[in-house]
């Protein structure tokens, strides 16, 4: 089996060790010189093996078959006029998708820039993301495995960008319709650097939002954008105040009948501050805006049930603690006053709770996600004196730093009373609320602290004590005011200053020619007889004083004497009359 050969060591002729080898020892092949040019030359054809291949020698394993080697192509340099072959050539449909995606991405960036609500850093980040998405889609389209996924992704992205552009345009159009004023960028940016006061008015209006309407919600929002402080001052609708533009008093809610500027001036005079802007909204707009931002979370001081309002909301029960409210339930929460012993005061506190919850939602980045929906909800139900640039500047400021705000709320108080001298309802006895001077002064101090930028605001937060909760049966849609508590006095106005002429009226009771009943003027009311004189600097009207015992006896004596005279004339009796004045009929 083995080929055994004996070999003698060349240095020792004696018998050496025996070596056993497997197979035959072959000599090393001779070295072959190869020209480098032969490496690039085509391989010559191999000669075919003859049919009768030589058989391998005995004792040797058969050689394995060799795989055919493909011939090498000869390399030739490209001509300058020839284009290099593209390894990632895009299909024609992919080029169209990429072009459409690029155009829509650019349009979306233009729309975002037009809103002027995003800081520059946000725009840069969004631009970078859109560019990366474009490159990703292009890379996937060039590959065979990811081409289908890239097409689907590109189509979805193009659709989203197109819808976003349309929504942004609708939002900008609506925002332009509800705002007023033309300001340059420098003027609009002042609102982010200087304190301002906004009048928030909730109008008791069921249809189109008009300028002249009673205002059931009257809140002054004092804002300091530098210190991130804000104060919400609520004034009850029945507050008995000096009506701006007149020398008379009236309920605050009636000031809205003469225009929003009259309400702003009336509140400004009450608190000694200039009211710069206003925001007005009606019931339908309030519901739509709350729903547009996904509802609000409001804390209720006590459990109560709000009476329903036909066409707006059903009777709603609220639990003590946190309640998640949609548009209708938020309106029910903000409008209810008959369920509380403190009536309109507690209603004002609840209204500011809802406004605070709305502010927390609107100051977050989620505002951009519902921008168009929010603007659609505000259409025809929301008007403001802010310009579009001012609103954009405020949103851009908040999104730029996402700062938290120190917001305090306060409601002025008063006592119930009756007055028949309201400017808008002369001769009618109406329920009013006499202002409490201490609470008004507290509100003034809070306003001054916010406008002055004090580091720490004076604590004026009100936590009402739990009182009786009633089950309301009155319809809140009724126009007449329902007193929350029994009036404790009857208000009689003080006489007008001598240098202001009194309002002249015709004999039939109508205003004389030249006077306009629909607008405030410098009219005065004639005080009732027996009213006491009030100092000029007094802000509260005196109460009606009861007659003394002596006055009652004098009135009774006069009445008895008049009755005796009438009886004597009718029956010929001389009692109580002069005998000479009586005539005796003939017998």
Automatic annotation (TrEMBL):
Membrane spanning residue stretches: 95-113, 119-137, 149-169
Record carries keyword Nucleotide-binding: no
UniProt key word Transmembrane: yes
Biased composition (Pro residues): 59-71
Domain Cell envelope-related transcriptional attenuator: 214-363
Keywords in alphabetical order: Membrane, Transmembrane, Transmembrane helix
Ranges of compositional bias, category Low complexity: 49-58
Coiled coil: none
Region (Disordered): 1-86, 457-560
Record field: compositional bias (Polar residues): 513-524, 538-560
Source domain of life: Bacteria
PANTHER family: POLYISOPRENYL-TEICHOIC ACID--PEPTIDOGLYCAN TEICHOIC ACID TRANSFERASE TAGU
UniProt xrefs under NCBIfam families: lytR_cpsA_psr
Membership in a protein family: Belongs to the LytR/CpsA/Psr (LCP) family.
Official protein name in the record: LCP family protein
Organism: Faecalibacterium butyricigenerans
